[in-house]
Amino acid sequence: MSKVxxxxxxxxxxxxLSLYGTFQDKKGGYAIVxxxxxxxxxxxxxxxxxxxAILALAAKGKLNLGGAAxxxxxxxxxxxQDQFNELASGAGHADYVVRYVHGIRKSLRNFxxxxxxxxxxxxxAHRLLESNGLGYRISIPPDRLHPPPxx
Length: 151
Prior knowledge:
Elements: E1 16-21, E2 29-35, E3 38-44, H1 46-59, H2 77-87, H3 97-114, H4 121-128, E4 129-132, E5 135-138, E6 145-146
Parallel strand pairs: 1-6
Antiparallel strand pairs: 1-2, 2-3, 4-5
């Protein structure tokens, strides 16, 4: 029997991502990226950390997105804004979540290039933090994602 392909395959299935920090911490938090027997830490400011944490929690099914739940673990811009308002009020303005996503990708690109994770840091960042017409997601399998322990 052949395996049915996933409609939205993960773009970095071998990677692992752990997040450390809280939504209330004004200093932001850390993303620990693991792949190919390597591990590096990336610091993210408060608003960027909050957006990445929300996407990780959504991927793990730890957020109640109600009717806004999308296939493949994607989170729409509207749902991301709503969760940002609910979980990270004070970390920034929810209308800027797209800017925060862009900022996360820029940080990931610089991180990838500085630590020689990828020849094309921009492409790697876009594979890790994927977007399409549905919304945004961390393109790592949920069993390899570790949201902040205490949100």
